[in-house]
Design a protein that fits this description.
5 strands
């Protein structure tokens, strides 16, 4: 049995990760792959419950950065053991909207927690599992925030989302954190501009995956 591929998408808010995850999964499945699209936090029933806690503001009780970190760790642990490792071993490929790099960036570079501690917690939670390829969708924070605002207009979702509603300084730190990690791991990361249209970004993503894995994705 050939092990499946594990691809992750990373980037700040408004980069279109969810859309590109879905489009790539659809394209790979059309090309004969067995691919599942997942998200982090989430991925499992337990993970989705943790996602609700992490993403939604609780009136009168804000999560601490440390609580965020430990909840993300719990989500990753459940996802790795119950979904990713057994699925990859069975030849299923996974494309994930975020994974442990987001924890390093959001709780480390943006929230200010100790990076060495974060690395240890990520290693423990993920049991050494690393993506085969990480696609970083990069965008100017101002544009990403505008996109998020337009997407959430009239729904109240932006104000209630604990990450989308953060300040420009926070989102700038997020972008700088992702670019720093990508520079440290050039063998795993590929950076694609997210400032183009959905179709333009999708074409660049397909070219990237085709090149990295020697594929011809439809």
């Amino acid at each position: 049995m050939v092990r499946g591929k594990f691809i992750t998408f990373e980037g700040g808010e408004g980069t279109g990760k969810s859309t590109q995850v879905r489009l790539l999964a659809d394209a790979m499945n059309r090309s004969g792959w067995n691919v599942k699209a997942v998200r982090s936090p989430g991925g499992t029933k337990v993970g989705e419950k943790l996602r609700s806690i992490l993403k939604t503001r609780e009136e009168g009780e804000e999560l601490t950065a440390e609580t965020e970190l430990l909840l993300f760790g719990a989500c990753h642990s459940q996802m790795v053991e119950r979904l990713l490792k057994p699925g990859l071993a069975d030849g299923i490929s996974f494309i994930s909207d975020r994974f442990f790099d987001s924890t390093m960036v959001y709780q480390g570079y943006a929230r200010g927690l100790d990076l060495e501690m974060l690395e240890r917690i990520n290693a423990f939670s993920c049991r050494g599992l690393k993506p085969d390829l990480t696609i970083l969708l990069d965008i100017e924070p101002e544009l990403g925030m505008r996109r998020s605002s337009i997407r959430a207009a009239g729904t109240g979702a932006l104000e209630n989302d604990r990450f989308d509603s953060e300040t420009l300084a926070f989102h700038t730190a997020v972008r700088e954190g992702f670019l720093t990690i990508a520079a440290k791991e050039p063998e795993r990361f590929r950076i694609i501009s997210a400032s183009g249209t959905i179709d333009e970004v999708a074409a660049a993503v397909k070219d990237c995956v085709n090149h990295e894995f020697g594929l011809e994705i439809l």
